[in-house]
Amino acid sequence: MKLGFIGTGNMAGAIMGGVIKSNVFKPEEIIGADLFAPGREKVKELYGINVTDSNKEVIEKSEVVIFSVKPQFYADVIQEVKDLVRPEQLIITIAPGKTLAWLAEQFGKDVKIVRTMPNTPAMVGEGMTAATPNEHVTKEELDYACKILSAFGKVEVVTEHMMDAVVAVSGSSPAYVFMFIEAMADAAVAEGMPRAQAYKFAAQAVLGSAKMVLETGKHPGELKDMVCSPAGTTIEAVGVLEEHGFRSAVIDAMKACVDVAKGM
Ligand SMILES: NC(=O)C1=CN([C@@H]2O[C@H](COP(=O)(O)OP(=O)(O)OC[C@H]3O[C@@H](n4cnc5c(N)ncnc54)[C@H](O)[C@@H]3O)[C@@H](O)[C@H]2O)C=CC1
Ligand SMILES: O=C(O)[C@@H]1CCC=N1
């Protein structure tokens, strides 16, 4: 087995979907363990991967293992499997706040670890993942980890101190973007647009705007100015957003996110 998951919940499912869709791994090369039987059965049915109730079996059978349980379960899971982790095996972590130093202490031996922070757009091949290796990971192994991670979106290797910012700006941010899309759709529905059509218009506007930032290289403020006609509709909307503290709401929300990540 090439790729193993401990925990087969939302983020693991998104990664499975991404790596299978991009043909980096075949379903039969993937194994996932979960305590919760319906969770295992769901990914087996959706992706055709192998499943088990044994975390130890995943460690024994996989080359690369993604630890995809909630941060509060990391210590127990590491305690359970650490003796079986092999020197050549690559461990990928995806939990906020779980530093390489903390992980090293938990394993209590030399283990190759790449700490990452992915996000759920991995499910559609548009993930954004940050990765930071520990001192036991070679350049070739980091390249291999990045190849896996880039199967479901973009990857950047960052220094570890950036990881808390990454949680706020890409790990958690899909949730804020979904709220923004939902709110815009609500307003369009209030004007009489059918709900499904409203989601399509709002989501495509977000997708197109994101692409403009990535592809034009222009400052987001300049792109905003291009939309705002003098005495037009948009500048009125921008004024109301500022009045309601749109920017500071986003900044404060992300500070709260970082604070929680640091405490994990
Ligand atoms: N959901 C997201 O958007 C993102 C999540 N993450 C991180 O990914 C990790 C997983 O998060 P989610 O997938 O959202 O959570 P989830 O709750 O959907 O999945 C976790 C799974 O682990 C299973 N589990 C719990 N204890 C276990 C154990 N001892 N052994 C085996 N399986 C066990 C649960 O039954 C559950 O299916 C977390 O550390 C989270 O912070 C990172 C980036 C984004
Ligand atoms: O909400 C959480 O804690 C996880 C980490 C990033 C996204 N979801």
How many beta-strand runs?
Answer: 8
Q: What oligomeric state is this?
A: single chain
Averaged pLDDT: 97
Number of helices: 12
Q: Structural class of the helices, strands and pairings?
A: alpha/beta
Distance between the termini: 31 Å
Ligands bound, unique = 1,4-dihydronicotinamide adenine dinucleotide, (2S)-3,4-dihydro-2H-pyrrole-2-carboxylic acid
The CATH class name of the largest domain reads Alpha Beta
Strand content: 5-15%
Describe the biggest sheet?
A: 8 strands, mixed
Q: Please, how many domains?
A: 2
Rg value = 21 Å
* Relative helix content: 40-55%
Strand order of the largest sheet: 3-2-1-4-5-6-7-8
Which stretches of 5+ consecutive residues score pLDDT under 50?
Answer: none
CATH topology of the largest domain: Rossmann fold
CATH level-4 homologous superfamily of the largest domain? NAD(P)-binding Rossmann-like Domain
Binding site for NADP(+): 6-11
Binding site for NADPH: 55
Subcellular location: Cytoplasm
Enzyme class: oxidoreductase
Q: Helices, strands, pairings?
A:
Elements: E1 3-6, H1 10-21, E2 30-33, H2 37-47, E3 50-52, H3 55-61, E4 64-67, H4 74-81, E5 90-93, H5 100-107, E6 112-117, E7 127-133, H6 139-149, E8 153-157, H7 163-171, H8 173-190, H9 195-216, H10 220-227, H11 233-243, H12 246-262
Parallel strand pairs: 1-2, 1-4, 2-3, 4-5, 5-6, 7-8
Antiparallel strand pairs: 6-7
Helix pairs in contact: 7-12, 8-9
The protein binds 1,4-dihydronicotinamide adenine dinucleotide and (2S)-3,4-dihydro-2H-pyrrole-2-carboxylic acid.
(2S)-3,4-dihydro-2H-pyrrole-2-carboxylic acid binds next to helix 7.
